[in-house]
Write a structure and sequence with these properties.
Length: about 120
């Protein structure tokens, strides 16, 4: 079993409970860890024998483009979409960070981490 990491995906999205967040938006960062068997790709050197990173990114991007009130909801949608789309992935670990949240102080980020096994 291997872990494919796609880290630091950066999105400008419109997730948030407050009305201003749905109008102004903010930056989000996504780290995704895909547990999968890469042994065939290690010897074949063919993309079709592993998880295509571009397709994973597009899957995450699609979920980030759909506004939600809560980052918990966005995180669940991403994890579910990845597991649905990529049958070879046995487990997904995700960290979703909302950068500079409007909480009345200087805060770098708030985040949620989800882990789901098939």
């Amino acid at each position: 079993m291997s872990v494919i990491a796609i880290e630091g995906m950066d999105f400008y999205s419109y997730h948030g409970h407050f009305e201003e967040e749905s109008i102004i938006g903010t930056r989000f960062k996504v780290d995704l860890y895909l547990h999968t068997d890469t042994s065939k790709a290690q010897t074949s050197d063919h993309l079709h024998d592993t998880v295509n990173y571009l397709e994973v990114y597009q899957c995450v991007k699609k979920q980030m483009e759909t506004p939600s009130y809560l980052i918990e909801h966005v995180a669940r949608r991403i994890v579910d979409a990845v597991l649905l789309r990529f049958e070879s992935v046995e487990k997904v670990n995700l960290k979703l960070r909302k950068m500079n949240p409007p909480l009345g102080g200087q805060i770098e980020s708030v985040s949620i981490e989800l882990s789901q096994t098939r």
